[in-house]
Amino acid sequence: MTEVVMQRGLVRHEGRLAMMAAVAVLVGVAFMTIGLRGDLAFVLELRAVRLAAMVLVGVAVAVSTVVFQTVCANRIITPSIMGLDALYVFCQTALVFALSGFGFAGIDPRLHFLGNFTAMTSLALALFLPMLRRRFDLTLMLLTGVVLGVLFRSLTTLLARLLDPNDFAVLQGTVFASFNAVEPDLLLFAGVITVAGVAIAWRARHVLDVLALGTDTAIGLGVAWRGTAAGLLVVVAALVSASTALVGPMAFLGLLVVSLTERIVGTNRHAILLPAAALTAIIVLVGGQTVLQHALGGEGSLGIVVEFVGGIVFLAILFAGGRR
Amino acid sequence: MIEIAGVSLALGGSRILDNVSLTVPKGGVTALVGPNGAGKSSLLSLIARLRPLQSGRITVDGLPVDTTPSRQLARIMAILRQDPGVASRLRVAELVGFGRFPHIRGRLTAKDREIIAASLEQFDLSDLALRFIDTLSGGQRQRALVAMTFCQGTDYILLDEPLNNLDMFHARNLMRTLRRIADEHGKTVLIVLHDINHAASYADRIVAMKDGTVIASGETGDIIRPDILESIFGFSMRVENIAGRLTVLHHA
Amino acid sequence: MTAGSLGSQGFAYQAIGAATLLALFVASLFVGVSELAIGSFASDPEALRLIMISRLPRTVATLLAGSALAIAGLVMQTLARNRFVEPSTAGTAQSAALGILVVTLVWPDASLGCKAAGAAVTALAGTSVFLMLAHRLPPTQPFLVPLFGLVYGGVIGAAAIFAAWHLDLLQYLEVWMTGEFSGILRGRYELLWVAGALVVLAWWTADRLTMLSLGRDVSIGLGLNYAGMLRLGLVIVSAITALTVVVVGTIPFVGLVAPNIVSRFAGENLRHTSPWVAGGGAALVLACDIIGRLIRFPYEVPVGTILGVVGAVLFLFLLLGRNSND
Predict the structure, then answer these.
(1) Which residue positions does the secretion signal occupy (chain C) (predicted)?
(2) Are both B62 and B28 inside the same structural domain?
């Protein structure tokens, strides 16, 4: 009886997933084809690179957010609200700062990425595992994360000033994501990391279902919590690194996407939630960019718009949750 | 004298007070009793102008509470709400000193300092005078707030379940102090009490409320009777005279 | 019995505090790209000119902005009844920047005073909305209000950046969002004296502000004009923030750090502590400005950047280390 019900639920969810996939493909085609002009091969290549970047970033942000939220057993906390992408940008600048001191300016971007990733992962584990273990009050943890994010951003600005005092870092570049300046070199590399991270998350989907029940319940059901959480945090760090390296920080994209997804699919089962969140992210990013580009004439501002809308969503969730 | 005439209050569509009329004579201790949700605290808030009056009329010593300047009212009437959640890092003496605010412009005079010291002494707070209130226990903080209310030196004192958080010693001390200032200084005390026996032992008059209306009001001896108590609280209880004090045996 | 017994000790602390502030003041006069030895301006008229036109105005501006921002933070904490908020972390500074943007757009040649007035209006609106929402949040969760404020400020900031980006004013916005004293000369900072006057006003109403922090019921019971006092506090916070953002740009965390540290040692009776808070804010900003001048000498790092780091570290310390003290 229950099996039949669950089976029926699964079929319904799979139907929704198929629908979302279709919408995602449609949005992608629209992005590639609307308003084509001039040198067709050149424009198409440019758009393809951007589309690939948006898909990669969408998938990486969606999956990392779902996994992080599940490890924290809470649907409002996200990697970027806790300052992880700011941490990545900080590591990036710090590495450049340290290397320039030794005269290694022109380092291979992939090697650079690996250095950043290692630094960031170790810092993230050192900061967040104790916080999760000590079971901070949720609002204190969120506030600490937001302030850490401010600290990392301030440190980044400070280092940038120390590196080059005449360069007035324009706000947009350091604070908001930009999809117009994607390095093709990094695309493949970030792609490999994203695929690997998503594969691990997918294999762990049943463990994630259990973790979502809360730390105590998960331990009671036989999950080796500490090791599992640490491993999943590394996956999250890898995915955040990949997306941030490609386009820059996106503080509220993850939150926006996952809360949308939960409304659409209405399930906490990760076998559905993970792909659905990834598809939602793709639709939001690619669709948003298409609309901004052709309807509103604000090509480069997708990052800011997502931050604005995502921030309001965060406030709404916080307000509703706080008042409850 | 506190005069309440035709006061009703509705919050979010539900009726909290329904056409309440009541006169609290000057002098003596009047206890407000009744089950949870009877509207006691709301009535007290209206008298103390903490909530805007929706309908009806309330006067204290002839001054309408909705139109008299707040500062003038603060010189004749002090209010202590239940759990006002004071979170400032003030020293106990500083908090109690704010009770003098309605009477002064700027600096405390020597007389004000005397009153502050007396209030601290009265509530067993002299040793804690320099402690920050956020380092006190719940009961100590409650005493500090009561002391501030006393320090205001008003003819009318309104208290909303002030015995919360107090141990037996300090609860008894507070009730005896209220009794004394009513007897010796002619103050008028209107107090919401949770424990019917505190009302029975210390109050001159009892006002009983239920479902937003006053259902009984009179001398303590006329209210502390099994039939009236049952109509207020909904169950029967025995009343005994033990060593000259009316005692309600509501535990059985 | 009461505060009197702290008298002699209090005097020693006051002397130390005043000496520190004076030392920073003198240091600020003599630190900079142009060499300036102490005593040289007696013989060298050029040195005197440098002091009068650049160094002294800059140092005075730092003092005024630092103390005013600290007081604005203190008043904001009183209004929100939460010790972890301040103008730059709850949308006031961002609203002010948005206001300057609007004034610049409508009237590009507006004077500093007009820009400040416009900024004050939007800061007032932004802060009112924040407080209205913050008062609806449950007081049992003290971290919810600052969290709400930070994100609220971020959303307004994103709106300002979006608008600036569209209007090609991003460079200007950058200037308003990063506090910096290097551009301060005589004739370009005097608006900050208004902020200084507001500090005095806050001190003058200190008793009433303290009562405000006791909550609505207690303060009305004591005869305070609660709504009027709320409005006055709002005006003080908005005006100070607008003036500093227009003249020197956003300087974060001063209003958070200075009042919290003072409150740990001296409590929150504002009649006694507000001079300490003002002095502490001035010292903090002066020290950070001097660090900014020295850390990459001969270039300058803006004070806003230095305080972003120093202030965030201190904020984390206040958040996470706060149980150790009580």
Answers:
(1) none
(2) yes
Residue range B59-70: mean pLDDT, rounded: 92
User: Amino acid letter at C25?
Assistant: F
User: Does B48 share its domain with B17?
Assistant: yes
Cis peptide before C298 (omega within 30 of 0): yes
pLDDT over 70, % of chain A: 85
d(CA B140, CA B136): 6
Q: Are residues B213 and B118 in the same domain?
A: no
| Cβ within 8 Å of C, A 117-146 | 137, 139-140, 142-144, 146
A251 phi and psi angles, rounded to 5 deg? -60, -40
What range defines the domain where residue A113 resides? 2-323
**Judging by beta carbons within 10 Å of its beta carbon (0-12, 13-18, 19+), is residue B116 exposed, middle or buried?**
buried
| Domains held by chain B: number | 2
Lowest mean pLDDT among B80-94, B106-120, C290-304: B80-94
- Strand B188-192 and strand B28-33: the pairing is parallel
Please compute the mean of the pLDDT values over residues A222-231 and round it to a whole number. 84
Span between the terminal Cα atoms of chain A, in Å: 35
Number of folded domains that form chain A: 1
Chain C residues with CB under 8 Å of A151 CB are 308-309, 312-313, 316
Q: B208: domain CATH number? A: 3.40.50.300
The pLDDT of residue C36 is: 64
Q: Return d(Cα C9, Cα A41) in angstroms, integer.
A: 80
* Edge-to-edge strand list for the sheet holding B28-33: B77-80, B156-160, B188-192, B28-33, B205-210, B213-219
With contacts defined as CB-CB under 8 Å, which chain C residues touch A155? 309
Query: Does B50 contact C224 at a Cβ distance shorter than 8 Å?
Result: no
DSSP A156-205: HHHHHHHH-TT----HHHHHS--SSS--HHHHHHHHHHHHHHHHHHHHTH
What CATH code would you report for C68-320? 1.10.3470.10
Average pLDDT over residues A214-229: 82
Chains contacting A (3+ CB pairs below 8 angstroms): C
* Chain C residues within 8 A of A298 when measuring between CB atoms: 166
Q: Parse chain C into domains and list their residue ranges.
A: 68-320
Tell me the residue range of the domain where B13 lies: 1-76+155-170+184-252
pLDDT 10s digits, C120-177: 999 999 999 999 999 888 877 888 899 999 999 989 998 898 888 888 888 888 888 8
Mean pLDDT of A101-107: 61
CB contact under 8 A, A151 and C84: no
Count of pairs with CB atoms under 8 A, one residue in A, one in C:
124
Nearest CA in chain A to C144: A139
Q: Tell me how close the Cα of A15 comes to any Cα of chain C, in angstroms.
A: 36
Residue A176's CATH number: 1.10.3470.10
Report pLDDT digits (tens) over B163-177. 988 899 989 988 998
**Both B57 and B124 in a single domain?**
no
The verdict on residue B175 lying in a domain is: no
pLDDT above 70 (res A298): no
Q: Is residue B178 part of a domain?
A: no
**Residue with more model confidence, A302 or C148:** C148
B162, B59: one domain: yes
Minimum CA–CA partner of C217 in chain B: B50
In a domain, B139, yes or no: yes
The pLDDT value recorded for residue B32 is: 95
Do the chains contact at B84 and C223, CB–CB below 8 Å? no
Please give the biggest Cα pair distance in chain B.
Answer: 55
Of A11-20, A40-49, B16-25, C263-272, highest mean pLDDT: B16-25
Q: Which residue of B has its CA nearest to C265?
A: B89
Per the domain annotation, does B101 fall within a domain? yes
What is the predicted pLDDT for the residue at C250?
A: 92
- What part of C 16-75 touches B (C-beta under 8 Å)? none
- For residue range A178-207, what is the model confidence (pLDDT) as tens digits? 676 677 777 888 889 899 999 999 999 988
pLDDT tens column, C209-226: 999 988 889 999 999 999
What is the DSSP code (8-state) at residue B108?
P
- Cα–chain center distance at C320: 23
